[in-house]
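Hi Y.,

Following your request, here is the sequence exactly as I used it, all 125 residues.
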Amino acid sequence: MSNLKDLADLPMLEVWGEAVRARRLDGERISFAIVELAPNAVVPEHHHPAEQLGMCITGSIRFTIDGETRDLGPGGTWRITSEKPHVVVAGPDGAVVIDVFTPIRSDWDALPLVDPPTAPRWPRA
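Below is the corresponding structure, written out as tokens. Let me know if you'd prefer a different format.
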């Protein structure tokens, strides 16, 4: 596998159905994902062993982490420690976010691929 790839060349995964899709790049111990959330998409409460850091790139989201809720727009960040419950609701225009996980999200290996994938919503051509 090449160490240099364009976002559009990464497979698109259905993380939460058609409403939440992601392109992921894995290292040995870290996953980097660009996640696209449809307008008003809901990521139901869940938790995972991976720690997660993220940032909103476009659009808006309402994030609840371990009972704390905040509206985030471009530049808004989050930190989720291992096994902390969290929920995300996208704003009316949807959102594109960056998520970084450690260890890698090997559970995403079983997610369905979008075929053919759509063009990335970010960055704009």
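The first strand starts at residue 12 and ends at 16.

Thanks again,
Q.
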